[in-house]
Specification:
The structure holds three protein chains of three kinds. Chain A has nine helices and ten strands. By secondary structure, chain A is an alpha/beta fold. Chain A folds into two domains: 164 residues, P-loop containing nucleotide triphosphate hydrolases (Rossmann fold), CATH 3.40.50; 75 residues, no CATH class. In chain A, the strands form two sheets. A six-stranded mixed β-sheet of chain A has the order 6-7-8-3-9-10, sandwiched between helices. Chain A has a four-stranded antiparallel β-sheet with strand order 2-1-4-5, with helices on one face. The mean pLDDT of chain A is 90. The chains are: A alpha/beta, B mainly alpha, C mainly alpha. Chains A and B meet through helix 2 and helix 3 of A and helix 9, helix 10 and helix 11 of B.
Chain lengths: 249, 317, 289
């Protein structure tokens, strides 16, 4: 069964059609990259998947369940986690506290006015494991707002991971980063995909990153799906060459 | 135990020591026990408001309504229902909390200034009810004709009516109870979702927190605490005043929280102490105390926006 | 009965006209600068007392022309000195500041002019009732409504056809883009604030002629103006206009049938509107408020 099945979604804002009749299937363990020029509707498409707003037409299924009309937090509860192009974190809390909130919500404790010792210990070790995974364990007690851009992004990914998601949506994970940081985040995503077997959909501008990571690439242009295929197929595709890769490279 | 924890423990011990011995150290400084009691009750109100304002990041400018409802709830209970102080407190708290819960459901989708505006306007609804329904509430004159009753333990009674010190310690006990509950909630997983919402609403939503529902719960809890503080205030004065529900009273509460330091748990208590003592002093020396209180608002906003505790913390750092 | 009804509806319309003037000013400032101006009622009082002070020298007409711009200048200074440092900070701070300012203005006017009501003399021909049957419609009341109508019309012309107005409207929708276009946002906010305070000053002069002056009169008009904005839909000036008239007439009508509830009715109206249309009558769905 596919983790994500998107059928013919369209999103209109007034007269503007931001996404037109796009379909996409993402299988378990797959890493799918969405590319396309600015204004192609990539982020709108992401917002449709994560429930920022409902589509004008079409349907979205997650783990075989129709989620087209579900609110954001309900989708998250079902196992969909997301990061943003501009990092969304809790800047005045420590790295540990940031991730702990995610872990507690995922553990079903969000409405609880108490937490007992064993539950707290379990959350604690889960947070530590997650921080280990994103190489932030040494900075657990630092305020997130004081970290470097790359570390903030890693903290945001850690929060998403603490939700134990079946699907990870990453919106331009390397946006605004230098080569060193880009390399580190790319390695992290690669580890998550190869070693921990996460299903990932990401939007990315950096073609080196895309071709390095992706099992499959989808090209959006002016709200429409121009092509999808393996990195080799996309690299060889003449329409894509003409529309996008040619002038981006 | 690390040094931060040690410092925290020392601070806590100091705060409770100051509160426990207030009737003794206040007199030599020219204070009186009833003033300390008022500070405690208004401080509890400011802390209740700050539970929402400082820890969930939601600006209610109509919280006096729930304070006043608590006061009327307690007063009406004592006057018409039963001469029981604990019952008065419980029913006052319920009246404030339930009204807050109902109104909260109507307005949680609003944010920022719009939330503030709608809370002000709805707060005034309760003010008008208290003002107009004279047959029940005494209207403009306020609700009179009741007084706090001795606390009955079966074997013995504690007189809190005529003995100011006994009453102070009764209020301190209630205060400790409420503040304890507040602190407990703030350190719980639910409390951490409140702080998450304050820090970043979008991120909270994308962690799976139904933000509106959590804001509603925080608003409702805050109104329960506020109702309790109001009920205590009715016991302090043996009187409930419609002006206690007015938005200008809400402004005072917000001011206490801001002046003390919104981001700290104890800040609003300090703010309340300074505000009450200052108001007490100003109204005794000048008829134009309103101007000075107004000026205080302006100065605090312009020069001490992080409040006294925020100011101290910053200059240490 | 008809006469009573007519009397109260007229009354409601006139009160509504005041609400509209006040609420439009508040709304302008709220929409562009995200500031709830608690001192708006205070500026109304300042406008009234300026008129009272200068009427003996330049007459009612002179005061009507001069008092609103003088109030606006005071508003401009207040904005420049006190409110400007608060833009971009939590709206809580501007709210608290103007709240304190309202205290100071109320107490200050009491200190300068005394707590008693002060009458502003209006020209005799305006004080005459229209006829014996319609004794309650004095010329002054008609005149007030006319002035309010002209002021509102001019405001909408300003917003639609002048460069300043177009910029204000654009800034209300998206201040960042306006700033990116190289428009001086600080100046825009100042002028917008001044326009809002001008309207408050104008209401002050008109109110002084009708009701007499008291230091507390501004505070009394503040809450209905808030409700006018909420009922009309926050963010919409036509909504504010409709909201002000609606609650004015509603409280006028209630005064006929249930006098005790004439003030409470506007709150009931607000609750009903918010239940049925959470964004107010003219509020746009999907707007992120």
């Amino acid at each position: 069964m596919n983790v994500l099945e998107i059928k013919n979604v369209t999103k209109r804002f007034g007269n503007l059609v931001a996404v037109r009749d796009v379909s996409l299937e993402v299988g378990k363990g797959e890493l799918c990259a969405i590319i396309g020029p600015n204004g192609a509707g990539k982020t709108t498409f992401f917002n449709l998947i994560s429930g920022f707003f409902p589509p004008t037409a079409g349907s979205i299924a997650f783990d075989g369940r129709d989620i087209t009309r579900l609110a954001t937090h309900e989708r998250v509860t079902l196992g969909m986690a997301r990061t943003f192009q501009i990092t969304e974190i809790f800047p005045e809390l420590t790295v540990f506290q940031n991730v702990r909130i995610a872990a507690e919500v995922a553990g079903g404790y969000r409405l609880r006015p108490w937490i007992n010792r064993s539950e707290a210990a379990q959350i604690h070790s889960q947070v530590e494991d997650t921080l280990q995974l994103v190489s932030l364990a040494a900075k657990a007690d630092r305020l997130v707002g004081e970290l470097s851009h790359g570390d903030q992004r890693a903290a945001e990914i850690a929060m998403a991971l603490a939700l134990k998601p079946h699907l990870l949506l990453l919106d331009e994970p390397t946006a605004g980063m230098g080569d060193q940081e880009t390399y580190q985040i790319t390695q992290l995503i690669r580890r998550l995909h190869r070693d921990s077997n996460y299903t990932i959909v990401l939007i990315e501008h950096d073609m080196r990153v895309v071709f390095h990571l992706a099992d499959r690439i989808c090209v959006l242009d002016r709200g429409q799906m121009l092509a999808q295929g393996t990195p080799q197929e996309i690299a060889a595709n003449e329409i894509v060459q003409a529309a996008y890769l040619g002038n981006a490279a | 135990m690390n040094s931060a924890q040690t410092r925290k423990l020392i601070t806590l011990t100091a705060i409770w020591a100051v509160l426990l011995f207030a009737p003794f150290w206040m007199l030599p400084l020219g204070g009186y026990t009833a003033l300390a009691t008022r500070v405690l009750v208004l401080g509890l109100a400011a802390m209740s408001l700050n539970f929402l304002l400082g820890f969930t990041g939601v600006l209610s400018f109509g919280h006096a309504a729930y304070f006043g409802l608590g006061a009327y709830g307690a007063g009406l209970t004592l006057k018409f229902l039963a001469p029981s102080t604990p019952l008065a407190l419980v029913l006052g708290m319920l009246l404030g909390g339930v009204c807050g819960a109902l109104l909260g459901a109507l307005i949680v989708r609003r944010r920022g200034v719009y939330f503030a505006m709608v809370t002000i306007a709805f707060g005034q609804v309760f003010y008008y009810i208290a003002f107009q329904w004279s047959s029940l509430t005494g209207g403009d004159d306020g609700l009179r004709g009741f007084s706090r009753q001795p606390i009955d333990f079966g074997l013995f009674q504690i007189d809190i009516l005529s003995n100011a010190n006994n009453f102070y310690y009764f209020v301190l006990f209630c205060f400790a109870l409420m503040v304890g509950v507040m602190g407990y909630i703030l350190r719980s997983p639910f409390g951490r979702t409140m702080i998450a919402i304050r820090e970043n609403e979008r991120r909270s939503r994308f962690l799976g927190i139904p933000v509106e529902r959590h804001i509603w719960i925080a608003f409702t809890l805050s109104c329960f605490f506020m109702g309790f503080a109001g009920a205590l205030y009715a016991l302090v004065n043996n009187f409930a005043d419609p002006r206690g529900l007015h938005y200008s009273q809400s402004g005072d509460f917000v001011m206490m929280a801001v002046m003390g330091g919104m981001r700290s748990f104890w800040g609003p208590l300090l703010g309340a102490a300074v505000f009450v003592v200052l108001q007490d002093y100003l109204s005794s020396v000048t008829v134009n105390w309103m101007s000075f209180v107004g000026l205080l608002f302006v100065l605090v906003v312009l020069f001490f926006p992080r409040g006294l505790l925020g100011f101290i913390q910053r200059s240490k750092a | 009965m008809t006469q009573l009804l007519l009397f109260n509806v007229t009354n409601g319309l006139i009160i509504g006209a005041f609400y509209v003037l006040m609420a439009l000013g508040l709304s302008l400032i709220l929409n562009l600068s995200n500031v709830i101006n608690f001192a708006h009622g205070g500026f109304l009082v300042i406008g009234g007392y300026i008129a009272y002070t200068i009427t003996p020298y330049i007459g009612f007409w002179g005061a009507l022309l001069l008092a609103p711009p003088l109030t606006a200048i005071i508003g401009l200074i207040v904005e420049r000195v006190l409110i400007r440092p608060l833009y971009g900070r939590d709206p809580l701070y501007s709210l608290l500041l103007t709240f304190g300012l309202a205290f100071m203005i109320e107490d200050g006017t009491r200190f300068i002019w005394g707590p008693q009501g002060k009458p502003v003399t209006i020209p005799p021909f305006l004080a005459q009732p229209l006829s014996n049957d319609l004794f309650f419609i004095t010329g002054y009341r008609l005149f007030m409504v006319a002035v309010v109508m002209i002021a509102v019309a001019l405001l909408f012309v300003l917003l639609r056809y002048t460069r300043l107005g177009v910029r204000i409207r654009a800034g209300t929708l998206d201040l960042e883009t306006v700033a990116a276009l190289g428009i001086n946002v600080q100046m825009l906010r100042s002028l917008n604030f001044a326009v809002g305070i001008f309207l408050a000053g104008l209401s002050g002069v008109l109110a002084a002629g009708q009701l007499g002056l008291e230091p507390t009169m501004g505070t009394g008009l503040l809450m209905p103006s808030f409700i006018a904005i909420i009922v009309g839909g926050i963010g919409s000036l036509p909504g504010t206009l409709a909201g002000g008239l609606l609650i004015g007439v509603a409280s006028g009508l209630t005064a006929v049938f249930l006098p005790a509830a004439s003030e409470a009715v506007i709150y009931v109206l607000m609750a009903v509107v918010l239940l049925l249309r959470p964004r107010g009558l003219f509020g746009e769905e999907g707007m992120m408020t």
